[in-house]
Amino acid sequence: MGRLLFIVNPRAGKAQVRSRLLDIVDIFVKSGWQVEVHITQGPLDAMETAARRGGEADLVVCSGGDGTLSETISGMVRLEKPPRLGYIPAGSTNDFASSLRIPSQMTKAAGIIMEGTPYPVDIGYFCRERTFVYVAAFGMFTEVSYMTPQEKKNLLGHQAYMLEGVKSLANIKSYFMKLESDETVLEGEFVFGMVTNTVSVGGFKGLVKKDVALNDGLFEVLMIRTPRTVVELKDILASMILKGEQHEYECVHRFKTSSLKVTFQEPVDWVLDGEFGGSRTEVEIENQSKKIEIMTAI
Questions:
Q1: Partners of 292 in the beta sheet?
Q2: Is 235 part of a structural domain of the chain?
Q3: Where is the domain boundary, 92, 122, 152?
Q4: What's the number of CA atoms in the CB half-sphere (13 Å) around residue 79?
Q5: Do residues 113 and 182 both lie within one domain?
Q6: 54 within 8 A of 75, measured Cβ to Cβ
Q7: 187 and 280 share one domain
Q8: Is residue 256 part of a domain?
Q9: CA angle 182, 80, 274 (to 5 degrees)
Q10: Is 7 helix (H, G, I), strand (E, B) or coil?
C-alpha cells in the first residue's frame, strides 16, 4: 500500500505501548504497509520527525497521549500536502481520542487505522506560530496538565489531574483581559479561559457543550469571570462538573467562534493540548477548518 511512518512515545500513559508494539506493527505489515518506527527521544521530537519524515510517507501514525498527537500534527501541518494520520491513544486522559471514538485498546485502534475512513478535523493556530489540536487555555487548573510529573500520571492516571487540580484551588489568580471576536466582546477580571475543539477536557465532559463538531470551522469558547460571592463560586463549579443540560450563569460565558483575540495587562501562561504554550500579553487564535484527515470509525 505504501510507506507508513509510526511515531511512538514510549513514556506516555503507563508505557503500555512497549508491550503492544510488535502486535501493532504486525497489523500494519499484514495490511501491506512498509513500516518505519521512530521512538521519540524527548520533547518536540514527534513534531520534528513528522515535519522531517512525514512528507516521505503515505500515512503517519502516532502513539502517545494528547501531547504526542498535538506534536505530530504540528509537524504535519508544515508539509505542503500532509498525509493522512492514524492515532493510537496511550495517554492518561486521551480527550481527543474520545471525541473521535477511537478505542483505548491499542490493537483495536490499529485496526481502525487500517480499515476505517478518513475524517477531516479542524486545527487551531495560536499566535500564528504554533498549533493546537483540541484545547488552548489559561488560568486555574491549566498548570495541572504540564506540571504533574509523568510518573504520577502513569501511576494514578486521571486521578492525578484531579489531585493536582484540588491543590490549585487555594491559589486562584485573576487576570484582567479583553476578548474580541465577531460574536462578542468581553472585558474584566477572569480566572479561567479555554478555546476547544473536543467533547471533553482533562476527562471532564461538563466543560464543553454537547453540540461539538470537530470540523465545522468553529471553536467552543469558555470564559469564567472572577467570582465575587460564594454563590458565584458555587455556580462556576456547577458549570464545570455538570454532564447534563448546562445552565446559564452570569459569570460563565460560552460561545462559538472561528477566531478571537485576547489582550492581558500582564504576561499570562497558556497551555496547548496539555503542554506549556508560553507566557503572553496578547493572543490571537484562528481555526483552520478540516486541516488534517484522521482515520476513524465515525
A1: 121
A2: yes
A3: 122
A4: 25
A5: no
A6: yes
A7: yes
A8: yes
A9: 55
A10: strand
d(CA 269, CA 294): 30
**Distance in angstroms (rounded) separating the CA atoms of residues 131 and 77:** 9
User: Which of 90, 122, 154 marks a domain boundary?
Assistant: 122
Return the residue matching grid coordinates 478505542: 103
208 and 150 fall within a common domain: yes
Q: Are 285 and 272 in contact (CB under 8 A)?
A: no
Provide the residue range defining the domain that includes 100.
2-122
pLDDT tens by residue, 126-172? 998 899 998 999 987 665 444 444 454 444 444 444 445 445 545 67
SS3 content of the chain, % helix, strand, coil (to 5): 30, 40, 30
Please say whether the beta carbons of 93 and 158 come within 8 A: yes
The C-alpha cell at 239 is 458549570
State whether residue 174 is helix, strand or coil.
coil
Cell numbers that stand for 227 in this block? 467570582
Global confidence as pTM? 0.81
